Amino acid sequence: MTDSATPAMDLNAAHKYFAAHCFNGAWEYMDKPQRTVAENEQMLALAMTSHWHWMQREDYTPVKASISYWQLSRIFVLLRQAENARHYAQRSLDVLPANGTLPFYHGYAYEALARAAALAQDRPAMEAALAQAQEFALAVPKESNRKALLADLEAIGYS
């Protein structure tokens, strides 16, 4: 959305900067073992803002959308909001094309679905998502990425 008040600047460069800056800022909050209510709000605002800036970029792809949705799902797990976590996890999966996408991204979309299901205490959905994620993880060609995904899958607990 632009109008006559749009500043004379490189908007694509601004979107590129804020997409990454806000994503990384949200990640810093995600890594904190404990957050205040204000920090939780900041974390969510940063992730939402990051995704909006990605959507404005010329190089916005289904993979980039999936990553943004994955981060939002993970944040909603941290916020203990199972339905929002499930919604964004499903979006993370839905935006990926069935073919031609690296298995790493599909694996992490299913990882998000498993986390959301675990939070909702939906054991069948969690187990189904974990099985799909593990199948994709085994197909990840880069060893470090495969190990990271498998470690994240192992960390999903059901309480």
Features:
mainly alpha; globular; 0% strand; 159 residues
Describe this structure in words.
The protein is an all-alpha fold and 159 residues long. It has two domains: 11-60; 63-159, no CATH class. The protein is 73% helix and 0% strand. The chain is built from seven helices and no strands. The protein has helices at residues 11-31, 37-56, 62-78, 82-94, 103-119, 123-138, 143-154. Helix 3 runs antiparallel to helix 4, helix 4 packs antiparallel against helix 5 and helix 6 runs antiparallel to helix 7. The protein is globular and about 55 Å long.
Topology:
Elements: H1 11-31, H2 37-56, H3 62-78, H4 82-94, H5 103-119, H6 123-138, H7 143-154
Helix pairs in contact: 1-2, 2-3, 3-4, 3-5, 4-5, 5-6, 5-7, 6-7
Number of strands: 0
Q: How big a fraction of the residues is strand?
A: under 5%
What kind of assembly state do the chains in view correspond to?
A: single chain
The major β-sheet equals: none
The helix-strand sequence is HHHHHHH
Provide the residue-averaged pLDDT. Answer: 94
Contiguous runs where pLDDT drops below 50 for at least 5 residues: none
Structural class: mainly alpha
Shape verdict: globular
- Percent of residues in helical segments? over 70%
Rg (CA only): 17 Å
Termini distance? 45 Å
> What is the total domain count?
2
Query: How many H/I helices?
Result: 7
